[in-house]
Amino acid sequence: MFSIDNFIRPHLKSLKPYSSARDEFEGEASVYLDANENNLGSLAGGVDYNRYPDPYQKTIKEKLSKLKGIRPEQIFIGNGSDEAIDLLMRLVCEPGRNEVLLLPPTYGMYEVSANIHNVGIQRVPLDEHFQPVFEKIAEKQTESTKILFLCSPNNPTGNILEPATVEKLIRSFNGLVVVDEAYIDFTDIPSWSTRLDEFPNLLVMQTLSKAWGMAGLRLGMAFASPEIIGYLNKIKPPYNINVVTQELVSAALDKTAQLQDMLQVIIKERTRLVEAFEALPLIEKVYPSDANFVLVQVHNANELYAYLLERGVVVRNRSTQPGCANCLRITIGTPAENDNLLESLNAYSAQEATL
């Protein structure tokens, strides 16, 4: 049976976390003289901003609990998912001794964070269908391997990782399995967060940056056992989510109807773009997508990327990623932006035809 206590870096088990003023007093009072705040107010435009934020984001967690069907004590809130990735590295990986397992092509921040913390990296590329190969992954794990990162829907490929293989990996991996679901809202596949009680070594990450349209507010979520979440709260900065973000996110979480409206538009536009891409001779392959972007393979990605830039259209050139030669990642824009993109692609095709 997996126990997070067996994987925590020894010195963190006895760590006494910073105790903030808001940790030591909870409740309501008429005069607050405990946190060395400026009681006269704030030059940032509001009296509320002179007070430190809730260090544990209780209001947001209560709303997420109802929305996701997850207990508040199973929720960690971070400054983007990147903070959760960083804290997980700190929590279980000894610098210079431990390693993580990545399945490229995948989200680049896993590797960056590992490099920052001097944590080793084992790589097992996804197969030609961008699916994990269980046997090869099992062969790579050693006693030093502490975390397996799975991105589903995957970035930059856009596809869901086969659920049966993911489950097999969670059950067999002797360490933390992190399933990054940044794009889960764009598909009808159930979230792995619904099975947290079944898998004590599972941590699921989601974000409000994509479907919810709040990338600028920087709020990511991690769902796991209360034991894992307790350790993340123990080592996080005391006030990692600011007052403005907490207020705006709390209000946004009440707008689930508007979220569904936006999702319908994005998914409809994704279908339209995929159909248009498949009809364009310059696009050699359109990969299946369960995200708010589509990966396409073209004749010459560098040339097409530069051409689109000249016309004011910015896409992402992913050609340097394993298995993604001559591939561009194209985000689903507004209907007008997508029209602009298709017009530019058609113009490029016409230009190619005359050469």
Q: Keywords for this structure?
A:
globular, 12 helices, alpha/beta, four-stranded antiparallel beta sheet, seven-stranded mixed beta sheet, Aspartate Aminotransferase, domain 2, single chain, 355 residues, Aspartate Aminotransferase, domain 1, 2 domains
Q: What does this molecule look like?
A:
This protein has 355 residues and is of the alpha/beta class. It has two domains: 4-20 and 55-254, Type I PLP-dependent aspartate aminotransferase-like (Major domain) (Aspartate Aminotransferase, domain 2), CATH 3.40.640; 257-354, Aspartate Aminotransferase, domain 1 (Alpha-Beta Complex). Helix content is 36%, strand content 14%. It has twelve helices and eleven strands. It has helices at 10-13, 21-24, 58-68, 81-92, 109-116, 134-140, 163-172, 226-235, 243-252, 256-278, 301-310, 335-354, and strands at residues 75-78, 99-102, 120-123, 145-151, 176-180, 202-207, 220-223, 283-286, 293-298, 316-317, 327-331. The strands form two sheets. The protein has a seven-stranded mixed sheet, sandwiched between helices. Strands 8-9-11-10 form a four-stranded antiparallel sheet, covered by helices on one side.
